[in-house]
Amino acid sequence: MDQSRIRNFCIIAHIDHGKSTLADRLLQLTDTVADREMQAQLLDSMDLEREKGVTIKASAVRMTYTAEDGNQYVMNLIDTPGHVDFGYEVSRALQACEGALLVVDATQGVEAQTLANLYLAIDADLEIIPVINKIDLPAAMPDDVAEEVEAITGIDALDCIPVSAKTGENCRAILEAIVAQMSPPNESETNPFRALIFDSHYDKYKGVIAYVRVFEGSMNARDIVHFMSNEEEVDPIEVGIFEPMMKKVKTLNTGEVGYIATGFKSVQEVRVGDTITLKKNMAETPLSGFSPAKPMVFAGFFPADNEEYNELKEALEKLQLNDAALTYEPEVSNALNFGFRVGFLGMFHMEIIQERLEREYDLSIVATAPSVRYELVDAEGDVRMIESPAELPEDGSYEEIREPWMRVQIFTPDEYYGVIMDLATKRRGELISQEYPAPKRVILTYDLPLAELIVDFYDRLKSGTRGYASMDYDFNEYRPSDLVKLEVLVNKAEVDALTMIVHRDMAYQRGQKLVTALKDKIPRQMFEVPIQASVGKRVISRANVRAMRKDVLAKCYGGDITRKKKLLEKQKKGKKRMKMIGNVEVPQEAFMSVLSLGDD
Known about the structure:
Elements (H helix, E strand, L loop, with lengths): L5 E8 L5 H11 L17 H6 L6 E8 L5 E8 L7 H8 L4 E7 L6 H12 L3 E7 L8 H12 L7 E2 L9 H10 L12 E10 L3 E10 L2 E2 L4 E3 L5 E2 L3 E5 L3 E4 L1 E2 L4 E5 L13 E4 L18 E7 L5 H13 L5 E7 L3 E8 L2 H14 L4 E3 L3 E2 L1 E5 L4 E4 L11 E16 L3 H10 L3 E9 L2 E9 H4 L3 H8 L5 E12 L1 E8 L2 E2 L5 E4 H18 L7 E7 L2 E8 L15 H21 L6 H6 L7
Parallel strand pairs: 1-3, 1-4, 4-5, 5-6
Antiparallel strand pairs: 2-3, 7-8, 7-16, 8-15, 9-14, 10-11, 10-16, 12-13, 12-15, 17-19, 17-20, 17-21, 18-19, 22-23, 22-24, 24-26, 24-27, 25-26, 28-29, 28-30, 28-31, 31-32
């Protein structure tokens, strides 16, 4: 295929603005998928994606379109996620494209992720085509939204394409705009072969399958490929394209998007962002990849049954292959034995990974309370990272501790201004700026500690604004804070999996709520179980789980009082001995209760 007839583009938008539905219409218009095979959200192949109604993984598909000028064009579409936690998937997809469709909901207008994804596309130097979707809805305001797009992006409101992805109205205009406005790939076909790996997944028959965008040269299925980052070489099992299922082809040429089935069984050998070249005519320099994702949230994942440790390790390895933002390392807990400290981009990312482990790999997981990565400055002035609260040394043995602060943008109707101010202030937020991009719409920019953001900030924002507000956040800086380690003791034994790092001003409040929550979750024993929250050597909150009591006097009808006293004394001694050797199991609900400690 002539390069001038190739168009590589992606669809970017805020969550629920209709990316996947628009992708369905484009697949139908180009006859890529027959009507009898068509189903809603075709590219969302994962069960979780269908259930939650969100795209989690970027997916690629090749379409062939005959334009009004009579020429046939090959269009490689990459559908991307919209949720803030999967922005890394978007940044990777953009590297394989020359243009992007910016989809905006005609009823809701520009929202936080619309803007965040737009900036990513501009940084990648892509041609932007704005699309106003859902014009079939009674509440649609396509003209107002087009003006809002112009105010924020600088793209003329008249250039916005109004469509309904649900009914298919005016969707062909998008394909014509892609042909007319997006530039084709413009790379050398004679230079040594270079292709960028922008995604991958594991297939039990074909091994690791690398999704590639070819930037220079061409390869055929018999060529031995060379991975530039780790010097690995492999004779591919097959090469192919996505239509949208994998279809085997003989060659991959400049400008095309396809896959290479490597046959590798180990996940470490194929790295997303790596450059592939050929052994017979090797390129000298790799392509500029993209910066690796930095996990923001960390939690301990432990198998409920310790014998499943190896299965959990293998499952995390395979998930990491098609989710480069996932990191993990072994961890040992005195309460939960062997497991892993796993890094995520956010709480939704953590929820998805946990569900995938339980569904796809049939594992039962105990997850600890999430924490963030802190910087610790020791007495000598050396800086080291702390990913688990258990790593924080005793108070006084370090110079200072710094926590990550995020720059948060909140888009909201101005009637909820006060609700958001109250929510952010309770979470130690600092107002940076406010803008009015359209009448009755305000953008509030805050600096917020990540530790306050990850637990339930998003849920409270949505419930407080009846779902109208949206948010996006980026890492800003590490700041010194007065932080302390809040430890939990159950029956005088420390439960390291419940330890958390909190601001000193909030330690008493958090400790009290945690102890109260645990008191309801830990089952009663034959002896009294004390639950304590402590900071350093000082206990700041305590509650007791009352003992189950057997009535040892049930069979004593009258008689000498000393007999009754003797039986009660014997029971008291037995309970005391049991308490010394008794072991209290902390159920999974207790670990999850840490997540729901509200501000009320």
